[in-house]
Amino acid sequence: MTTAVLTESKPASPTWQWFGDAFRRHPTAIAGGIVLAVMVLIALLAPWLGTVDPQALSPIQRLKPPSSEHWFGTDMLGRDVYSRVIYGSRISLAVGISVATFSIAVGLTIGLVTGFTRWLDAIVMRVMDGLMSIPSVLLAIALMALTKASVGNVILAITLAEVPRVVRLVRGLVLSLREQPYVEAAIAAGTNLPLILLRHILPNTVAPLLVQGTYICASAMILEAILSFIGAGTPPNIPSWGNIMAEARSLFQIAGYLILFPGLFLSLTVLAVNMLGDGMRDALDPRLARRM
Amino acid sequence: MIVYILRRLGATLIVMAVVALFVFSLLFLTPGDPAAVIAGDVATTDDIQRIREKLGLNEPFLVQFGNWVGRLLHGDLGTSIFTNLPVTKLIGQRVQPTVSLTLLTLVFAVLIAVPVGVLAAAKAGTWTDRLVMGFSVLAFSVPVFVLAYLLIGLFSIRLEWLPVQGYRPLSDGVWPWLSHLILPSIALGTVYMAFIARITRAAMLDVLAQDYIRTANAKGLSPRAVLTGHALKNAGVPIITVIGIGIALLISGAIVTETVFAIPGIGRLTVDAILRRDYPIIQGVILLFSGVYVLINLLVDLSYRLFDPRIRY
Description:
By secondary structure, chain A is mostly helical.
């Protein structure tokens, strides 16, 4: 396979150039990246995209199907669904990106420390095993049931559900890396532990964590929507895709568009992130690419 | 073998203890007074006091935890704050629909996903393979409830083939029961199927690269015999593992699916409990589902030998 040749020439080559190369080989990843970039732009430019106040009530305009005036129709309170969906992208992206960032930061720290501290390792991993045996939706539900509904708490709850997986990944990497001759050499040379972690271990975790980060981002966006949909997520006064669909739960037979548009945006965004993740994984690990 | 089973059982007990401790301590770890949060915005001081007492929040932490675990070991999951009924009873009333839904989904998902994964591996690199992989990425990206509404919109509202919502117990007859579960099972099973198909394909590709497969091909066995007889059998361990791990997807998905299809199962019980902030129910459901999940994966671990006699415990 051509990709196999790529690995051999890789050793310490600068990641970025390699990225560019790899992306040219993976058109789906580029497509995913473009869609995601468009979504980010939509989120940033929401006020200038022909939207009105997503919270503005207009009882006379209740449940109007899509028209030239209301592109995506109006909901049960007469609010403009197009505006709500556009503004909703902010919540989904913010949750996805924050959860990915926080869970990787926390998971990386715990994973690095436990990977090098035997006695701590056993305890931490039992806790992580326990957390991982609670299905993530339930874990997040438990947290949301005990706190006030807010975007911050949603991010916190989903992050907690994702951290164990990152810890597992990082710990696995650390355990295999510490057997590498160059790490053993560093230890033999008397390099102190923080420096070994920083110089020799950390750089090797970047690529897999980047891939894992995109998957976490995708699953966090779905989880936020699920939590909002079942009433344990973003507070109802904030337009999030999950909330718009939650409000349409009893109305879907007469106003299917209330589910269709936010559902479409959500699926498309998650798809884009997943495609980007798959592309990155293929680029960073050609051996795995053949298999998955 | 017996030593291994005992060791795994021990590990399982530890995991369940961690789950129990976590679920219990959440009440204390969350900022503010949990009783006040559970009581909601319109609660009076008396309400909050009543909830404090019901949850035993006035006792020291360790005493509370000890009492709670003691009752747990006697099969007592506590009492619902809202209905005042034992949580075990509430869950018991809801078991049938959830078990029907998840079991049906499990069976049909495995029956479809494994052959599809094998096919994709056999035709690796072709359009069949790409189609399967493309569908699996799509399945990972569409949330369960969006898919559920699309299915209802098409098959129940537009074509009127299947009921829109609801549940009929098996005692009402097989078809009424089944017809109410077809769409929920498809909605719930799609991600699970994608997950299993992907891993099946990957495991098969690994096995197909082995020497004994080349030998089998060289001695003139039909491709079908090689795929099912030699390759699939040896890919069994990762496949059965992912079927076990994927149960988490089914459990999470069931909560949402039951909400969309108005199925009166444990998932609905959970969602209603969230809206009423009935924490004992949520606690009970988490313990139950995590227990089932851990137990299934223990059985999966123990079944490895069936697929690979070389494995020694």
